[in-house]
Design brief:
The complex is a heterotrimer. Chain A is built from twelve helices and ten strands. By secondary structure, chain A is of the alpha+beta class. Chain A has a four-stranded mixed sheet with strand order 1-4-5-8. Chain A has a four-stranded antiparallel sheet with strand order 2-3-7-6, with no helix packed on it. In chain A, strands 9-10 form a two-stranded antiparallel sheet. In chain A, helix 8 runs antiparallel to helix 9 and helix 9 runs antiparallel to helix 10. In chain C, the strands form three sheets. In chain C, strands 11-10-9-12-8-1-6-7-13 form a nine-stranded mixed sheet, sandwiched between helices. By secondary structure, chain C is an alpha/beta fold. The chains are: A alpha+beta, B alpha/beta, C alpha/beta. At the B-C interface, helix 5, strand 5, strand 7, strand 8 and strand 11 of B face helix 3, helix 4, strand 9, strand 10 and strand 11 of C.
Chain lengths: 380, 334, 267
Amino acid sequence: MSSPFFNEDHESIREMARDFAAKTLAPLAADIDKNEEFPMDVVRQMADMGFLGLKIPEEFGGLGLDMRSYVCVMEEISKKCATATLFISSANSLSTAPVVISGTPEQKEKYLPGVVSGEEFIAFGLTEPNAGSDAASMTTKAVADGDSYILNGRKCFITMAPISKYCIVYAKTNPEKGAKGISCFMVDMSLPGVSCGKHEEKMGQRGVPVSDVVLEDVRVPKECLIGELDLGFINAMKTLSVGRIGVASMCLGMAAEAIELAVEHTKNRVQFGKPLCKHQAIAFMLAEMETKLNAARGLVYNAAWMMDNGMKADKEASMAKFFAAEAGIEIVNKALQLFGGYGYSREYEIERIYRDIRVCSIYEGSSQVQQIVISGQMLK
Amino acid sequence: MEAKTKDLWVFVETNEDGTAKNVGIELLTPGKMMAGKQGGALVAVVIGSGVDEAVKAANEHGADKIIVVDGPEFKHYSTDAYAIALVSLVEKYGPTSMLIGATNNGRDLGPRVSCRLKTGLTADCTALDIDDETGNVAWTRPAFGGNLMATIICPNHRPQIGTVRPGVFKKSDAVEGKAEIVKEDLHVAESDIRTQVLEIIKDLGGENVDLEGAEIIVSGGRGVGGPEGFEPIKALADALGATVGASRAAVDAGWIAHAHQVGQTGKTVGPKLYIACGISGAIQHLAGMSGSDVVVAINKDPDAPIFDVADYGVVGNLFEVLPVLTEEIKKARG
Amino acid sequence: MNILVCVKQVPDTTEIKIDPVKNTLIRDGVPSIVNPFDGYALEAAARIKDKNPDTKIVVLSMGPPQATAALKECLAIAADKAYLVSGRTFGGSDTLATSYILYNAVKKVEELEGKFDAIFCGKQAIDGDTAQVGPELAEHLGYPQVTYGLEAEVDGDMLKVKKEVEEGVEVIGVKFPCLVTYTKPAWDPRYPTIKRKMAANRAEIPVLGDDAFPDIDTTRIGLKGSPTNVKKTFVPQKKTGGVKIKEADNETSAKVLFEKLSAASII
């Protein structure tokens, strides 16, 4: 056994993900980044293997597995292609968690199986131009009108919006009640009044399209309300806590890959008459990178283990995401440094990882938001 | 079974037009040496339809005796017809050893025949000798993807059979034939042939690639970088009248059809000149081209293993080396 | 449709290195995998099952107890049932003895799983590279064979097999029961699914041991029952002494190469 956190099933899931990443994703990753396009047959392949339904209940086509299974997959896939993990993390958290957490049986039946099979995508619309970390300050509104709601507003940086069939939209139904007046809606992207903004040209994780979602007098039937009226914000926060572990796991994978590349490079690259790794300053850098990676692993695995055992782990999940993202970015940065000029060339994988990992301290709760959560728990 | 003679047989596989496949004629060369050491005759066994050309070739390249089975049922190869014919000949004449070319058909037929005769078979040999003490054939073949060579013997069963890779041995010079030719009136009933050819799709991937018969091969590997990277390779091949080969890495990447693949899981080749471009030289590739007379390697990595087997190694960028080389050749050839 | 797929666990020969000092194979740390060609055979069976869902796929392997890992891998990909043939008296068998043991095993497994319409094998194992066990098993069973198969489809009482030949591809028709060996097709075999993988982790794999075949002819198995034996093994000699050309620029290198090849009358 390689770790007290994982059992035989976890290990074999990890091995499957590693094998898939090496054989199928690794050869595609550079093109996915360059062309900003992810092959849909590979999404189907991931769906067939079960990656898109890891945490979805079995009765809706998923596997109903635990958080640690999800960690194993995210960590291994992100080693070879960070973009691919977005399809997995969306399917397992942002696209489905609101429905899994608060949806009716009919809603689950309607929305979950298509996501699990990789045939339908659901975007997650929380962020707005003026409501990022402070999500409760959103201005998108939903007004009841007969047996419908009329939605107006603009969501931004919405992952997969241009390819999604639905978008989960958080909107104010009771504006004077602040966070306690927000509701969650499942919006069909083909409804009149729904449109996507321009393609967002990103620094990293470029294989997944991102755009604004614009809502202009969109009439949504009442069956599309997910969970109770005015309780949408709680649903959003619970969804994000699942996502946090996913992002943290991605950071572990990217940092591990960066270290592996750095070790290989410093063993082979000869300067001043000996391999780089034989220079103590370089070897010490590697030691520090490896130590920080393992510290991050400890935090992530422990948070996942606590969740799997029914413990409250908000603080642990935030610490895991905060530390894994910050340490991951630092490790990848150092690995790139060890590549010297080559690391600055697009021909080398480390350059892509450097861009791919950067967003991890920004999205799904920035490092600063995680620190608010952590300190909030300490100081209450 | 017991051997009735000390004769060594070479199975000469034929093409549908009645000519001999090269490997059958190649095998007469080591066959002559082995038959001599075993104290028996060198017998070519020709099975096919309208096989006069093949018989003539066997006669001109050293067979002492030629056993001929000729019939329409042997025009297109089938496991059943050929196995029935070859087994009944072996049972009738009782040779002590038999060589079969390790073509797809040879490797299909060999184990079927050896199993029916309850004797040993050594597959895909690259070297042959006779053990001086015992008179057994010492069959040498690669294993573990070419990482290891093994010498196999079959001491107590006859005939001892081996399949031998095409291109390992060279055809002897043609001489005037004086072999005894024995025509066997042997036929296989249609009902005994349990497979039927429903369709023939020639030209896999739109190209007919004769790597095994090529005198010059220019091959590309991972270093060519993509399908368009084969353009300078094709240009050089055109200038030289050569065939284009590829390493597994290039084929697996989808840059070129499998029919071009040289190596353990592709073709084994033995050209006069093999030019490896951007091929690192994995042992599996070397296993397929080490029979080449002269090897030229062009690779930007000075430590690539291909240089260990190259007679001429150029350390450099193939995209800059190849066009210049192609131009020089064109100039020299006018 | 009832299909048996024969698989072998092999060392990943692409990972094997040579000890430069002792000049021997380094086998330590080399991962064990399902022979890739057997993987193609399993994929061919799985594709038949995709079209004919009532197909049952049984996998059979002969090897040490650790070979259950290879069988579990097959269960995770597509197989419904797995059997391992493992016994001390089977060790040291050459291809003829191995195929004879497998023939006995096929008969035994058929008592439990019903008669097999088709037996699929890889064209060869990447450790031995003999390509003999498939055809020999067909001969023991008295079945027709098709080797170098790429894919197969069921057409009534016949299997239509696309077969790789030197000049291209042939479509061969063969009646059941039959044996087909497979080579590398143009596609990659499917991956296991997590669901199947977890079920495979829990699967019990029946072992057919030394006493599983009371009627077997013991003079035809193991080292003593094998007509061929290995006299010696050695690591192939590397050719050395080539000329290395590395001029100031690539153009000059190319010209030097041309001059040398011309001077030696190679081109």
